[in-house]
Write a structure and sequence with these properties.
single chain; mainly alpha; 10 helices; 73% helix; 0% strand; thylakoid; Cyt_c_biogenesis_CcsA; Cyt_c_assembly
């Protein structure tokens, strides 16, 4: 009872903090910049990360297993992964992930605590197939890879917005880079129009650079997760690959981002081509992550759920 109450409190504290951050972001985007959103979001996501960490540890203690056995727990871990990426970006002095990581955290955590998942929010005993040391290795690698790939794909989507949209001054406020502004202000012989073009081109380069780095990291985690999953499958089911729906979509996801990395490192292709592939990968990840859970079929259907009847 105590652990359940503590988990409930930590869940709502972290969700409330991110909600306030997102509200301030939209207020600054639509009205005026009264509060520095970058500094606020960076500082606010730290207690969010600590609350989510405490939530996972608490659930681990009173459930008796690592909290990655169902859809609810994986969503909370996905939220934790988004906040972890934000913390890493904060220490790397990269501010262009702030809006993406905060928005992703509130989306995943909001869905995890919704009434749709009430039936699986209570911890249950692990099924025999999940009672393995590989649970932590395989599932954690997959979830962290999803978080990194989703963030990188959203950066690519933002890149496409700046490439194809002529007037994006208000949207620029969400992705302002102080180093770009300082670099521009040091140039005194540049007109206002050329200054805007310079700022936009530098911003596009920054988005392309960081989306490539984040997706590359996510691809590494995804590869590790698939390999560890194959080893675990051989121990549990006697086969490294069973052409299970989850395995098929994981392989498709891997192929999509392998194509992205090939196009991105090939100088013969413009940057928007790789960004389009990354946006496609964004959709494929959600199909891979939720598809099996919605259908409830295959060997990976442990976290399946049904919509509550009205």
């Amino acid at each position: 009872m105590i652990f359940s109450t503590l988990e409930h409190i930590l869940n709502h504290i972290s969700f409330s903090i991110v909600s306030i951050v997102i509200s301030i972001w939209f207020f600054n985007l639509l009205v005026t910049e009264l509060i520095k959103p970058y500094e606020l979001s960076e500082k606010s996501m730290i207690p969010t990360f600590l609350c989510l960490t405490g939530l996972l540890v608490t659930r681990w203690i009173y459930s008796g297993h690592f909290p990655l056995s169902d859809l609810y727990e994986s969503l909370i871990f996905l939220s934790w992964s988004f906040s972890l990426i934000h913390i890493v970006a904060y220490f790397k002095k990269n501010k262009n992930l702030s809006a993406i990581t905060a928005s992703s955290t509130i989306f995943t955590q909001g869905f995890a605590t919704s009434s749709l998942l009430n039936e699986i929010q209570k911890p249950a005993i692990l099924v025999p197939a999940l009672q393995s040391e590989w649970l932590i290795m395989h599932v954690s690698m997959m979830i962290v890879s999803y978080a990194a790939l989703l963030c990188g794909s959203l950066l690519s989507a933002a890149l496409l917005v700046f490439i194809f949209r002529k007037k994006s001054n208000r949207f620029l406020k969400s992705f302002s880079f102080k180093e770009i502004q300082d670099s521009y202000h040091r140039s005194t012989n540049t007109s206002f129009v050329s200054g805007k073009n310079y700022y936009k081109s530098q911003l596009i380069q920054q988005l392309d650079f960081w989306s490539y780095r984040v997706i590359s990291l996510g691809f590494l985690f995804l590869t590790t997760g698939i390999i560890s999953g194959a080893v675990w499958a051989n121990e549990a089911w006697g086969s490294y690959w069973s052409w299970d729906p989850k395995e098929i979509w994981a392989f498709i996801t891997w192929m999509i981002f392998a194509i992205y990395l090939h196009i991105r490192t090939n100088k013969n292709f413009p940057g928007k081509n790789s960004a389009l592939v990354a946006v496609l990968g964004f959709l494929i990840i959600w199909i891979c992550y939720f598809g099996v859970n919605l259908l409830g079929i295959g060997l990976h259907s442990y976290g399946s759920f049904t919509f509550p009847s009205s």
